[in-house]
């Protein structure tokens, strides 16, 4: 178990906020041509981290995505290309040891890898020998997830669905005071590409009765995955001044939702079996340092809303707490796949406009002294925006009626064989856009109930 963050580490974390450096220079190029291609998810300005297995191996390694290849950090360290505690931690089977060292270690590793992969690097040939084609890498979960907490930070999403319950008071009473959340199931988080089995559960029928069987209303929710670094001792809050230092990086997250099961169970305590069936995350973690050029002011609160509570407010968060990320959802049905057609886009939304920021989620989560651990996963909640095309789950989209796809198919909720695909791009004037890779999974039929 990594040691909790000590007073010296906290002092380092509470220095001035990190700012873009030479690794973000838009003029920077890699010796790998694919990394310089227009529209590439993984240019040298990105350098996301992930866990993978080599062909024929079951053991996992840590790698960096660059263009269409993966830099094997263990191979690079063994070749004498990388040195120091961060490089040593990155030879572990997953990212948790590096996360335990805190965000500064990831900063150091990023600088070393950038120097290794840039055009004109003196040991480019040796570095190339430590890479493999991305298509040959089997991606794994980035780390063992200790805890998974899912938030609800979109005012638009919350108000749209809340209006069905109470049109006069669509927001929960706590929404303006704090980022509402619940503890979800860490053990059922899976990496992109693994099928999602339609769950069984209790659901209310049209006649008002309750029956048990396969979920009828399976939904997706487009979210940002937020991965944490460092550790605070139990009983020690994380103030807004140090909350950004706990942000290791970001990915995409599909909070699969069995809506009929969820709606029946919500009244007493909140989400349970309607959410714990599976959660899909993208395999690459775009580090918090890679996201520095894409910082944006926190979204202003609508007129009439309460001000941000003082303990969740800071000048740095107001100026640069949000992130400019364009996010989209696509649906590939069996019929579209068979016809060789492109997936249909269902959603296009922007993360920067959401009500709470990542740092505020961290500060709130630890405000009671909860000890947040390296490798803890936070889900942002559904990233819906104000427009119809920015509704980021089917429960919202269907408020306007069934979905009609380009081939004439219609959908209410997801059917067996449907594949949901998330994509995202961080963007800002003057910066090289960076991508997150895909987060995708197909719906598999429910298993036969034992003894049926």
TrEMBL record:
Keywords: Calcium, Hydrolase, Magnesium, Metal-binding, Phenylalanine catabolism, Tyrosine catabolism. Mg(2+) binds at residues 255, 275, 279. InterPro entries: Fumarylacetoacetase (IPR005959), Fumarylacetoacetase-like_C (IPR011234), Fumarylacetoacetase_C_sf (IPR036663), Fumarylacetoacetase_N (IPR015377), Fumarylacetoacetase_N_sf (IPR036462). Pathway: Amino-acid degradation; L-phenylalanine degradation; acetoacetate and fumarate from L-phenylalanine: step 6/6. Substrate binds at residues 165, 262, 382. One of its GO terms (molecular function) is fumarylacetoacetase activity. The active site is at 157 (proton acceptor). Ca(2+) binds at residues 150, 221, 223, 255. It is an enzyme of class 3 (hydrolase). Residues 154-443 form the Fumarylacetoacetase-like C-terminal domain. Residues 45-142 form the Fumarylacetoacetase N-terminal domain. Its EC number is 3.7.1.2. One of its GO terms (biological process) is L-tyrosine catabolic process. The keyword 4Fe-4S does not apply. NCBIfam families: fum_ac_acetase (TIGR01266). PANTHER family: FUMARYLACETOACETASE. This is fumarylacetoacetase.
